[in-house]
Design goal:
423 residues, alpha/beta, 13 helices
């Protein structure tokens, strides 16, 4: 991946860090899947990628054994107050191996520079520890269009790493990844219509990656289709070969969107589960980006380079104040949807760095615990007060208490990576 990073650095210097092959000005994300809410463009390190958090459904090739089919209808039996009752370091996290970190909410501001290394190393360890046990977890199928030439030939490995990373959490029993160029769109539609989970209208999702450049498919989309099948669509465009984000991080990011919805499998629309959480603005893309960048990078050096490129590559038009106070305002925004709210794209920067900080405190996969706890309430049933309690259950302090701490960390990080903010 290092040669791609070098190419991208040169490309960024020539065109500006906010430019992309399919969206040079990095404007607000647009909806990409007709009839499927919550699709969003992911701007990679110099390239805009169309990503959906809950609309596409790809069919996997392995079967998941940990996916609940009815938990969303249950009500929680635990209780929590709005005040912290125990330090975050005492809260168990859902990881395969014990996670021990020198970072806690009490010292994370002072230890901010240690966050990336702790997160990257623990993420890679999570994959290694879970890999063998996860091999039969999800039935994964990677389908490539007949005239599509891949620039990355390790797609299946990337998806398998994503499955291993999230092994401790509910996942779809099957995941289908459709990889195709513009000419192969009819093939993808035909394949999708033959799937046992297909229902009328699903074929519109095939067009989701193909709406930013005329006669080209360059985006991606993923989620749960039908009752419990994960589906991902990835557009293949030759010019994207210059972007290291496409060589693993994108695939892991997309698969994570299906995992985000998996706790709600058994409900009418699992994708709406995580989209209706009060944390949707920052957690939806932040969670997927953390997984993609940390698991998809081959070394700490590459992770740091991708991290900086991603943060620099997602300026949001009209949003220039990355102070802690402004970030807290973003945290409290519960009404941002891709294609409707410009601030949705802040999930790739503020959201990502927030989840990175939480991962340094509670473990690399700890943020998914928020989803699994929220699913106990049902779709759309989590209020701000309840999310405050859910957060405390996972991290040991309430969300209200954590917000100003995390906002300070993120504000300082953005300033350090962007020369004191976006210009």
């Amino acid at each position: 991946m290092k040669k791609y990073l070098l190419i991208l650095v040169i490309f960024t210097l020539l065109t500006g860090c906010g430019s992309g092959l399919d969206n040079p000005e990095q404007t607000t994300p647009q909806k990409s899947a007709v009839d499927f809410p919550a699709t969003e463009p992911i701007v990679s390190a110099g390239n805009a990628v169309q990503v959906s958090t809950d609309t596409a459904t790809v069919v996997p090739t392995d079967t998941a054994t940990v996916v609940p089919t009815d938990t969303a209808t249950y009500t929680p039996t635990w209780t929590a107050t709005d005040e912290a009752t125990q330090p975050a370091t005492h809260v168990p996290t859902q990881t395969s191996t014990p996670f021990v970190s020198p970072i806690a909410f009490s010292n994370i501001v002072a230890l901010r520079e240690e966050i990336p290394q702790i997160v990257w190393e623990s993420a890679k360890n999570e994959v290694r520890s879970n890999y063998e046990n996860s091999r039969s977890l999800v039935d994964l199928k990677v389908l490539v269009g007949p005239s599509t030439t891949l620039y990355y030939n390790e797609n299946e490995d990337a998806y398998k790493n994503a499955i291993a990373f999230w092994e401790q959490f509910p996942q779809p029993p099957q995941y289908f990844a459709f990889l195709y160029n513009f000419e192969d769109k009819p093939w993808a539609v035909s394949k999708l219509k033959k799937m046992p989970f297909y229902s009328k209208g699903m074929e519109r999702s095939i067009d989701a990656p193909c709406q930013h450049i005329p006669n080209a498919c360059t985006g991606a989309n993923s989620g749960i289709f039908g009752a419990d099948t994960g589906v991902g669509v990835v557009g293949i465009y030759p010019l994207d070969a210059s972007d290291p984000y496409r060589f693993g991080p994108l695939q892991i990011h997309e698969y994570t969107h299906a995992v985000q919805a998996a706790p709600w499998i058994g409900t009418k629309d699992p994708n709406r589960g995580h989209q209706t959480m009060p944390s949707a603005c920052w957690l939806g893309e932040g969670q997927a980006h953390l997984a993609g960048l940390s698991v998809g990078s081959d070394s700490l050096e590459e992770y740091l380079q991708l991290r900086e490129m991603q943060v620099k590559g997602h300026p949001v038009k009209g949003f220039n104040d990355y102070s802690a106070d402004s970030i807290i305002d973003f945290y409290m925004d519960t009404d941002c949807l891709p294609g409707k709210s410009p601030e949705y794209a802040l999930g790739y920067t503020i959201g990502y760095l927030t989840v990175e900080a939480l991962s340094a405190i509670g473990g690399p996969t700890s943020s998914m615990g928020l989803n699994t706890r929220a699913a106990l309430y049902g779709v759309g049933e989590v209020t701000a007060k309840e999310f405050n309690q859910i957060f405390q259950h996972v991290y040991g302090i309430s969300w209200n208490e954590a917000m100003p701490i995390l906002a300070e960390v993120v504000a300082d990080t953005v300033a350090s990576l962007t020369d004191n903010g976006y210009q």
